[in-house]
Amino acid sequence: MGSKSPEGHRDTLHGSGGTTSIFASNPPKPDAASGLLHGKLEGQDNDDDDEDSNKGTGSDIESGITPLESGGQKKKRRNNRGRKKKKAVIGQQTYPPRIALANIFANKPYPEGQIVDYVQDENLQRTTAEELRHQAALGNMDDDFLKDYREAAEVHRQVRKHAQDIAKPGISMSDLAQNIEDGVRSLTGHQGIEAGDALKAGLAFPTGLCLNHVGAHWTPNPGGKEVILQYDDVLKVDFGVHVNGRIVDSAFTVASNPIYDNLLESVRAATNTGLREAGIDARIDHISGAIQEVMESYEVEINKKVIPVKAVKNITGHNILRYKIHGDKQVPFVKSKTTQRMEEGDIFAIETFGSTGRAYLRDDIGVYGYGRNENVSTAGLHHASARSLLKTIDNNFGTLVFSRRYLEHMGVKNYHLGMRSLVSNGIVDCYAPLVDVPNSYIAQFEHTVLLRPNCKEIVSRGDDY
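Structure tokens predicted for Methionine aminopeptidase 2:
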């Protein structure tokens, strides 16, 4: 989820810093290792018994019985009336994934992300304050911390795998969003309907489904005009999963038309460059410069016109805090003026956006989502509807960003007047879609990285990107 950068943040300044490189990566995880298997659950009935008997049915395949009996005769139809369905086999996932990972993994650990050792730089000597921060980071990154992050990351991997399968021309954005949201709620085991349930685990912010020149912060809203994915569209899918407030933020881009391949590859390479350069004591201005250099070395040919890929100037990557998708550190995609460094214990969403347009995003009409502003007093709030809605927000989302879809999923109705009052009083922030010039195309890739004391873990890394 992109963070808008402040004015002046993109001015160029010389400078360099310590770099790191990825020289160790985890092998790809097969579907079976993640508990993700295609097909029905074992013992699940099929209502298609009236098909030609020379074709094996789902029950035949699962039970190991071939369509022909040992005597060469066709197998007789079985009477399935009154048969009880067997329970799902423990350890197997459905397709689409809908079984909570707590039931899949039981007492087994969740998969690690990509583990990358730090490159030692003798010029970076720790001071006493850094040693204290080191001890604090060790205390924070305990077993529960890693368990929560790895569970959220595994949920993201399994849900996005299904999303990538169905994100084809002809699907509506509301259907795609519903599939993603249903998957996250099912795999975390928290449907987010009962009071406080969404704060335990679930969706970390509104599902972003941005087409073409829409760069970030667009989601289908209830009652809105339906949008259908087309062959020539460039679709960015950005969603977050949290477990106990520990947020995994990861995004990818899909395009059916191969003319956009270079655009996607430029942004993927830029994001991987940012991940390679990230590390303890790494200077953010150096990371930004490296990202821009890689991304802008690409060009794409669209309608017989060669267009350079440009790094988007006014949104950034960001650090992540507990229950807060945006912290106080930003990682621009262009060479920047900043003295900030990454620190031990930081969690960063390293993301990049590349555009064929102006590469400068502006607010568009519409609403993406809402976020609680905890620093604003509620003393002057008089409307009963606004006070009631604020209580619902505090009890179910806290400082997590949420959408109209999430409110209506909980059964909240007639909230528009109360929401207008909360927004006008500054108690709730309203976020609009961010767009480049029409007829331009933007791609995005993003991963969450944990800066652990002895290594960095790209926790959301998968076989796909």
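The CA atoms of residues 210 and 409 lie 22 Å apart.
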